[in-house]
Amino acid sequence: MIRDTETLQILLDSLRQFVGEVLIPRENEVAETDMIPEDIVERMREMGLFGLTLPEEFGGLGVTMEEEVNIAFELGRTSPAFRSYIGTNNGIGSIGILLDGTPEQKHNYLPKLASGKLLSAFCLTEPDAGSDAASLKTTALRNGEHYILNGTKRFITNAPHAGIYTVMARTNPEIKGAGGISAFIVERGTPGVSLGKPDHKMGHKGAHTCDVIFENAQVPASQLIGGIEGVGFKTAMKVLDKGRLHIAALSIGAAQRMLDDALGYALERKQFGKPIAEFQLIQAMLADSKAEIYAARCMVLDAARLRDNGHNVSTEASCAKMFSTEMCGRVADRCVQIHGGAGYVSEYAIERFYRDVRLFRIYEGTTQIQQLVIAKNMIRDAQR
Ligand SMILES: Cc1cc2nc3c(=O)[nH]c(=O)nc-3n(C[C@H](O)[C@H](O)[C@H](O)COP(=O)(O)OP(=O)(O)OC[C@H]3O[C@@H](n4cnc5c(N)ncnc54)[C@H](O)[C@@H]3O)c2cc1C
């Protein structure tokens, strides 16, 4: 539901300009240094990009889901590391607090997250609990006015930079599944909290993940999200529903960028005396990619509008994430092919994008997990 088309258009135009004139020219620098330059972080703060999805009362822009996916289409056109840096504050690191936090928790953390002065991270995955997140083993046992946390969280985006961690931990070890899990806000510097070595990843240079380790970490009871035990897994799933639409939209932006680059290359590169764009086999790859991007875009916009209208979009969000991220992988592969040998060397952005977009099919629920969610919902609805 777009609240004000004119304001959104101004935001999208300035974002398009920022992506095209500032971020794309710095992509190689980010890939080489594995860092987002501080001047760019500052520009992103000034533009309000850390608080896009947080309500205006907390200093954010309060965009709707439809507005958010339109923004993600633009941000997807450049290295995902830029988006990743602002992504946790707009999504997995903040939405749990926004949806289920107490008024004190919201007022304490959301304004700092919206301004980008504080970074957040979302700690669900563990060494032995990935897709089967409800089997997580990290414990949080009540001891007077504190909970004592023990366990390890794995692959946590922005963990090296975050000032707060939203941590899913088992407050009731007697309950093995989702019902025993609660969500906490854990501040950096809490004694007993430490970080593992940064992970060496296939792509997403400039975006950092590592383990977050809890060894008898004493967390004040007031940091339990919403002050209620046993609902942390539900909080995490609500966060991921929204995140899946965002990742779907990012994949569409990335696919569009790769296709634009491939078309430009195909028009310039000559073989057999003419631009390769004139060969019908190249045209087929261009056309298939165009049609698939269009289909994914329609799907994501439809799901976003449904969510803005108050519908439960568990099925639609999973359909959109599965289709868009898989589509992005197919487009990446075709665009490497269109570049020929040039697509395999790092002089062209497509080589980097090919590695970067592989992640979209894995995190925030793998493709297989999206298939399971869709089928489970279908079977449940059929049996009603
Ligand atoms: C760069 C990066 C950033 C990340 N950021 C975060 C973060 O910020 N916070 C966080 O909590 N997590 C994060 N993750 C973790 C990510 O969400 C998990 O890696 C993902 O959910 C998959 O879990 P897994 O790696 O344990 O794979 P597994 O669950 O071990 O899956 C391995 C394979 O088995 C398949 N599989 C598993 N179960 C089934 C099933 N029932 N049926 C069919 N197939 C199945 C999977 O689809 C996959 O193909 C990140 C991961 C990466 C790589």
Automatic annotation (TrEMBL):
For this chain, the family text in UniProt reads: Belongs to the acyl-CoA dehydrogenase family.
Span-the-membrane segments of this chain are none
Coiled coil: which residue ranges?
none
Biological processes, Gene Ontology terms: branched-chain amino acid catabolic process
Gene3D superfamilies referenced in this protein's UniProt entry, alphabetically: Acyl-CoA dehydrogenase/oxidase, N-terminal domain (1.10.540.10), Butyryl-CoA Dehydrogenase, subunit A, domain 2 (2.40.110.10), Butyryl-CoA Dehydrogenase, subunit A, domain 3 (1.20.140.10)
Report domain Acyl-CoA dehydrogenase/oxidase N-terminal positions.
Answer: 5-117
Pathway listed: Amino-acid degradation; L-valine degradation
Name by which UniProt lists this protein: Acyl-CoA dehydrogenase
In this protein, which residues make up the domain named Acyl-CoA oxidase/dehydrogenase middle? Answer: 121-216
Origin, by domain of life?
Bacteria
Which species is listed as the source? Pseudomonas duriflava
> What keywords were assigned to this record?
Branched-chain amino acid catabolism, FAD, Flavoprotein, Oxidoreductase
